[in-house]
Amino acid sequence: IMCERRLVIVKNVESYKDDAWNELLPVIESPIDSATLVLVASKLDKRKKFVKRLQENAILVELKKPFDNQI
Predict the structure, then answer these.
(1) How much is the mean pLDDT over the chain?
(2) Which of 4, 11, 13, 36 has a beta carbon 3.0–4.6 Å from 40's, enabling a disulfide?
(3) Dist. CA 48–CA 50, nearest whole Å
(4) Intra-chain end-to-end CA distance of the chain, in Å
(5) Is 29 in contact with 58 (CB distance < 8 Å)?
(6) Which residues contact 60 (CB under 8 A, 6 or more apart)?
(7) pLDDT of residue 2
(8) How many Å apart are CA 34 and CA 46, to the nearest integer?
(9) SS3 of residue 13 by DSSP
(10) 1-22 per-position pLDDT tens digit
(11) pLDDT (average), residues 24-29
(12) Distant-in-sequence, close-in-space partners of 5: CB < 8 Å, separation ≥ 6
């Protein structure tokens, strides 16, 4: 069964070096309409240019671990 959309999940992007981000940059700046790209990181340095590009061209969702009294 073929789907109209594809979901691509990339984990541990916080460990990516500049070369890896440079390869992802065209996809970030001109996303493919038929795909959803999810980048998963435990923590991102928001000062880096690649994160700033993400903020400009994507929807960033920050999920924090709840405290014990919130569960």
Answers:
(1) 89
(2) 11
(3) 5
(4) 39
(5) no
(6) 54
(7) 76
(8) 28
(9) helix
(10) 678 899 999 999 999 999 999 9
(11) 89
(12) 34, 35, 36
Residue 54, amino acid: L
Token pair of 45 as six digits: 């340095």
* Residue pointed to by tokens 């979901």: 7
Predicted local distance difference test score (pLDDT) of residue 3: 82
**Tokens of residue 13, six digits:** 């992007």
pLDDT in tens, 51-61: 898 899 899 99
Q: Residue written as tokens 């700033």?
A: 52
> In the beta sheet, which residues pair with residue 9?
38
Say if CB 45 and CB 21 are below 8 A apart: no
Residue type, 62: E
